[in-house]
Amino acid sequence: MDTCADVLIVIDLQNGVCNSGGEYLFDLTNLLTKVNNRIALYRALHKPIIFVQHCDEELVPEEDLWAIHSDLDVQAHDFFVRKTHANSFYKTNLKDILDELAIQRIEFCGAQTEYCMDATIKFAHGLGYENSMVQKATSTLNNPFMSAKETIDFYESIWNKRFLKFIEGE
After folding, report:
1. Pair 89, 127: CB distance under 8 Å
2. What residues have CB less than 8 Å from 70, skipping those under 6 apart?
3. Would you tell me which of 11, 38, 60, 159 could form a disulfide with 52, CB atoms 3.0–4.6 Å apart?
4. Domains of the chain
5. How many CA within 13 A on the CB side of residue 134?
């Protein structure tokens, strides 16, 4: 089984998403460790990493809440995409970057499971990309209908073998 794809896309692991008004993403410490492990693998294999950052009234570019979480290994030569919609492809340069890099297989990780992750994974699938993810490589907050853990499990069951394949990883 493949251990990685052509590119790793890290979505919205920003200060203001990881800690939303004093509420932290579910299992944040483990998520950041898992994402850094994936980043390290891609760096060792000299494969590209794309960080996607949401921009809105609360996540203002260049301000602290908008910044990528400081525990993540971000480097100047990585690629960066700014978005204003849950779908990371919507009115961004993401597809152009993927085309320039001749990407066919994408590995995803990030936040929030039921919003930006779901929209982007499904759209990428519709564009014909082969999507993959390490299990539990996304997170979210509790909502009135389900706990964060239940939400993650629910979406992973929808994505599995339909919109992506799960791969081995830590």
Report:
1. yes
2. 15
3. 11
4. 7-167 (3.40.50.850)
5. 22
Nearest alpha-carbon partner for 64 in 99, 100, 19: 19
Q: What is the pLDDT of residues 2-29, one digit of tens each?
A: 689 999 999 999 999 999 888 999 999 9
Q: What global pTM score does this model have?
A: 0.97
Indicate the pLDDT class of residue 1, thresholds 50, 70 and 90.
very low
**Judging by beta carbons within 10 Å of its beta carbon (0-12, 13-18, 19+), is residue 38 exposed, middle or buried?**
buried
140 Cβ partners below 8 Å, 6+ apart? 25, 26, 111, 112, 113, 114, 115, 148, 151, 152
Whole-angstrom Cα distance, residue 103 to residue 89? 14
